[in-house]
UniProtKB/TrEMBL annotation:
Keywords, comma-separated and alphabetical: Cell membrane, Lipoprotein, Membrane, Palmitate, Signal
UniProt-listed InterPro entries: Entericidin
Lineage: Bacteria, Pseudomonadati, Pseudomonadota, Betaproteobacteria, Burkholderiales
Keyword RNA-binding: no
Pfam families associated with the record: Entericidin
Signal peptide (UniProt feature, chain positions): 1-18
Species: Trinickia violacea
Similarity comment: family membership: Belongs to the EcnA/EcnB lipoprotein family.
Protein name per UniProt: Entericidin A/B family lipoprotein
Keyword Cytoplasm: no
GO CC term, one of those recorded: membrane
Biological process per Gene Ontology, one example term: response to toxic substance
């Protein structure tokens, strides 16, 4: 029974860690897209 509880806790921890990693990657990609958009808008206005 202790092994089952440990396995469930380990699985939950891994799942939550992966979730945070994917969310962070999504934010990084979004920030990169905003930077490209801002650069393009500045180039057009010149």
């Amino acid at each position: 029974m202790n092994r089952l509880i440990a396995l469930v806790l380990l699985s939950c921890t891994a799942w939550l860690t992966a979730c945070n990693t994917v969310a962070g990657a999504g934010q990084d990609i979004s920030n990169g897209g905003h930077a490209i958009t801002n650069s393009a808008e500045k180039a057009q206005s010149q």
